[in-house]
């Protein structure tokens, strides 16, 4: 989804760049050149090739920024997954301890039941 958005943004920039070139070239007292405004007399310095180069540099910068954002998002996701793994491991460890305690209690309960049964058998045998 992000890459579709990137392509859309870049295509819109290209359309805007080609649409703005005649406006700056013919009607503005200043011309945009490499992110700077040049006076009207410097129009001979401004050509479509330099504008295309500027657009390509800007697009490369945009790709770089989006790539860095993707890397940061992945890094944050990896940290969150790591934290989640630690939480799950801790929970499983606590659960194991709890199950051991429950198992010991069940064993003790069985021993108590056997002792009660032996007591009843001895009591009946004495009658």
Question: Topology of this structure?
Answer:
Blueprint: H1 2-26, E1 30-33, E2 36-39, H2 48-126
Antiparallel strand pairs: 1-2
Helix pairs in contact: 1-2
Percent range of helical residues: over 70%
List the total number of helices: 2
* Poorly predicted runs of 5 or more residues: 22-33
Alpha-carbon distance between the termini?
Answer: 85 Å
Radius of gyration, in angstroms, nearest whole number: 38 Å
Question: What's the mean pLDDT score?
Answer: 76
Strand neighbour order, sheet with most strands: 1-2
Task: Summarize the helix and strand pattern as letters.
Answer: HEEH
From the structure above, extract its key features:
about 130 residues, about 80% helix, two-stranded antiparallel sheet
Walkthrough of the structure:
This protein is mainly alpha-helical. It is built from 2 helices and 2 strands; from the N terminus they run αββα. It has a two-stranded antiparallel ribbon. The longest helix is centred in the last third of the chain and has 79 residues, at 48-126. Mean pLDDT is 76; it is low at 22-33.
Describe the structure in brief.
This protein is mainly α. It is 82% helix and 6% strand. Strands 1-2 form a two-stranded antiparallel sheet.
């Amino acid at each position: 989804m992000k890459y579709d958005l990137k392509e859309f943004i870049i295509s819109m920039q290209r359309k805007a760049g080609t649409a703005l070139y005649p406006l700056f070239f013919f009607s503005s007292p200043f011309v945009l050149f490499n992110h700077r405004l040049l006076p009207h007399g410097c129009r001979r310095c401004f050509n479509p090739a330099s504008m295309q180069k500027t657009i390509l540099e800007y697009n490369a910068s945009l790709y770089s920024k989006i790539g860095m954002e993707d890397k940061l998002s992945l890094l944050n996701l990896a940290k969150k997954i790591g934290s989640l793994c630690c939480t799950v491991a801790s929970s499983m460890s606590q659960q194991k301890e709890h199950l051991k305690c429950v198992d010991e209690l069940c064993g003790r309960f069985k021993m108590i039941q056997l002792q009660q049964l032996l007591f009843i058998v001895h009591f009946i045998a004495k009658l």
